[in-house]
Amino acid sequence: MKKSNTMKKEEILVRLQEFELFKGVPSEQLEWFAEHSELHFYEEGDTIFKPGDAIDEILIIIEGAFRLLSISNQQEREIATKIKGEVSGFLPFSRAKNASGVGRVIEKTIILGLNRSYEREMLRDHYELCQVLVHEMTSRVREFTGFQKQTEKMAALGKLSAGLAHELNNPASAIVRSAGELKKHLSLQPKKFKKVIKIKLTEELTDRITDLLFDKIQSPSAPKSLMKRKDLEDDLSFLLEDLQVDDAMELAENLADYGFEEKDIQSLAEQVKPEDIGAILHWMSDNLAIEKMVGDIQESSERISTLVNSVKVYTHMDQGQEKSEVDLHEGIRNTLNILNHKIKSSGTKIKLDFDEEIPAVCLFVSEINQVWTNLLDNAIDAVAGSDDPGIILRTRQKGKDVQVCIIDNGKGVPDEIAARIWEPFFTTKEMGKGTGLGLELVKDIVEKHHGTIKLKSQPGSTTFELCLPIS
Predict the structure, then answer these.
(1) At a CB cut-off of 8 Å and minimum separation 6, what does 324 contact?
(2) How many CA atoms lie within 13 A of 407 on its CB side?
(3) HSE of 180 in the Cβ direction (CA atoms, 13 Å)?
(4) How many domains does the chain have?
(5) Percent of the chain at pLDDT above 70?
(6) With contact defined as beta carbons under 8 Å apart, do 1 and 41 qualify?
(7) 252-278 core/surface letters (b: 16 or more CB in 10 A; e: else)
(8) Residue 376: which CATH number?
(9) What is the end-to-end Cα distance of the chain in Å, rounded?
(10) Does the pLDDT value for residue 393 go beyond 60?
(11) Residue 322 and residue 367: Cα distance in Å, rounded?
(12) Is 405 in contact with 464 (CB distance < 8 Å)?
């Protein structure tokens, strides 16, 4: 960048008068601006400012253009493009002191800069000029707030999507795996069926075998202790080898899953021919294996169904945008389902202390679910690093209100931070992990419902207390 005064003051004044922004501003005020400003010349690719640089000039683009870029996770994202005739940098009454993004030139650019040291003189003597610049500042704040709120929503959506993708991937993978094993298993059945069909058993003995099988399927009693289970497998394996049964080790593992004991097999061996015991046990084992694989598929399918239903209720996607009476507990539980991946990966223990007698509350459902998401997401982050991370969710009826408390055992919120947590754009998270709009959004939604939200915090116990009117 170079500073220069090669462009004449009269030419600068003409340029300013041509810009739509300054229509209606008296010529003498623009002449004062041109006289007290300096020209900055940039080449394509030059950086006008970077994060942390002081915002000390009102910048008016005389020629060219530059991009405003935000930096998140070491990646640049375009916020806006500033072109000829537009304003950037410092504006009257703005409290911004330092740049939070990057200004990068995209073509040869000339910028007129007025140092903020002239702010008082401008406010005192040049009303119309100040009015234009203040209006520009309010427009900038409105646009930036909209951008940041959209960023906050996209960040929240990203977190939920990542968690849901992980949560759905596990049961989906289990279904694919179990279905593949089941198909392979069933393909071997005709060959094994030949051995079983040759066996001649009485009707009474057949009933005993099938009753034993169904008892084990309906009431499996495998040892809970890994050591006891291993001992059982070894005992069964030795017994099966003594009975000259093929694949004794594999068979023992499967029978142990359903709590078969040595006495069950010995009793069976005493009632059938020695050459038939192997075929009978393999037939029973095959049925147990099929039962287990079908059970795994059913359990995984139910998990997917639960997650899909949680998303449906969470987003309220099959309902209108009007208020409706809802069970607060259902919304909280669905939010926990959606955040389950983050809860599990952080090792956070969730305790539900719900008063199941509280009445339904009239709410904008999808909005109040954003409240649970933001508060729970923050609470999970807050307990990270704790020896025994935990969150308590408590509900109570307080007169005409329902009280919801979200309590975490994190390190707490210092007083100087607690005083600012509801401010727009205030965040203690590192760049890329927070926009500072999460708690502001929470407060706005709660107040929209004519409720209140308070923070009480000390090391080891932080409580967000919400009160929502029942009607």
Answers:
(1) 362, 363, 365
(2) 13
(3) 6
(4) 3
(5) 85
(6) yes
(7) bbbbbbbbbeeebbeebbeebeeebbb
(8) 3.30.565.10
(9) 62
(10) yes
(11) 11
(12) yes
Domain containing residue 426? 316-469
- pLDDT reported for residue 276: 84
Residues 19 and 56 in one domain: yes
Residue 392's pLDDT is what? 95
Q: Do residues 272 and 255 share a domain?
A: yes
Encoded tokens for 169: 């991937």
| Measured distance CA(443)–CA(455) in Å, rounded | 11
Using the predicted structure, report yes or no on whether residue 429 has a pLDDT greater than 60.
no
Cβ-proximal residues to 240 (8 Å cutoff; 6+ apart), any chain: 248, 251, 252, 265, 281
Per the listing, tokens 């996209």 go with 154
Query: Which of residues 289, 315, 341 is at a domain's end?
Result: 315
Dihedral over alpha carbons 461, 464, 470, 471 (to 10 degrees): 170
DSSP character at residue 73: T
239 in the same domain as 286? yes
86's tokens: 């537009």
What is the Rg, in whole angstroms, of the alpha carbon atoms belonging to the chain?
A: 35
pTM over 0.90? The answer is no
| Sequence-distant (≥ 6) Cβ neighbours of residue 336 within 8 angstroms | 343, 350, 376
| Count of CB atoms situated within 10 Å of the CB of 331 | 23
Structure tokens that stand for 337 in this block: 């389902």
174: left (phi over 0), alpha (psi -120 to 50) or beta: alpha
Neighbouring CB atoms inside 10 A of 171's CB total: 20
Nearest to 366 by CA among 422, 419, 311: 311
What is the spatial distance between Cα 51 and Cα 54, in angstroms, rounded to a whole number?
A: 9
CATH classification of the domain holding 45: 2.60.120.10
Q: What separation in angstroms does the CA of 98 have from each of 51, 343, 454?
A: 7, 36, 31
